[in-house]
Amino acid sequence: MLSPHENRIALVRLSALGDVVATIHAAHAIRAARRDARITWIVDPGGAELLRGNPAIEEVRVFPRREGPGAWQRFLLDLRARPFDVALDLHGNLRSGIATWATGARRRLGFAPPLSREGNRFFLTDRVAPGAGSVHRRARVDAVLAALGVPPYAGTVWLPDEPGPREEVNAFLRERHPGRWILFQPGASRLGDYKRWPEERYVELGRRVAASGLGVVVHGGPGEEALVARIAGAIRARLEPGAAGTGAAPVSDKTAGWGIHHLLALLRRCAAIVCADTAPLQLADALGVPSVGIFGPKDPAVYGPAGPRSATLYAGVPCSPCRHRLCDHRECLMAVGVEEVERTLRRLLGGTLDSCHA
What we know:
The chain has helices spanning about 15-20, 25-35, 45-50, 70-80, 95-100, 135-145, 165-175, 200-210, 225-245, 260-270, 280-285, 300-305, 330-335, 340-350; strands spanning about 10, 40-45, 60, 85-90, 105-110, 125-130, 180-185, 215-220, 250-255, 270-275, 290-295, 310-315. By secondary structure, the protein is α/β, with parallel strands linked by helices. It has two domains: about 10-145, Rossmann fold (3-Layer(aba) Sandwich), CATH 3.40.50; about 165-350, Rossmann fold (3-Layer(aba) Sandwich), CATH 3.40.50.2000. The chain is globular.
């Protein structure tokens, strides 16, 4: 339990972006339980923009991950100079363990092995075992919170809504199509190529969606420009021979010049998203945007979206889930067909792919 004097609390979830999103509810849960809490979140640069401005978080401290040992030492010494009362390591690796220890908190809670790895457990005073089997990552966080006597948080999490990016996104879409849009996010993280649904299936799904009158916007992050352009161009090419007079909606692609705030605005503007097990899926789930998550090597019971407007497609082939980043057959993803994704998308949109359907 949190004592009345334990109000300086550090949350440590450094990365990855989707995991940061899936952990934000922890700050809201602590804030709801303790209005006087002074919550600091320690995070890598990639997740900081999602946390700044959150009314549940007083301070965001950015771990200088790529700046070398000297910057790490200065950062950790600065943490140590202003000790916390309690620290929660919601990441579970060596680096997060060091950051948790550097907070100077007398109580340092985190995961018990095997969820903690790389010696993380040695930096903790309290190790929590969320349970056996496929425990959802949100439930894992809730188990650590419960060890402090903090009830689960069932409300909406805060995510930024910057007016500049919102206006840019609205103008981009409005100029191209007045109706509804479906967002495709075909890429994955730098190390997540093995989670991508095949390009040709996005192309065929995009053809069907655009032919029905819904706009298709293909979006990607840095380094995915070629992938995004290739998929959008192929969808347009398939539409061209019979597009005249069919009411087909436009297909657009966008990567250059847009960041996380533009992605959030795009999600808020689109009717639904189709993507892999990536951060945009978690963002859509947090925003309540209808989402179709295509899972292959990862277990959706652990990593899938939890909201009522989200659906996960998972074939559950014998070799999945797995931890292999290289695969010569990707049977787990090949087993998810276009028809299944289209059918799921229709269900989430009320049974139709109709640009005028509310």
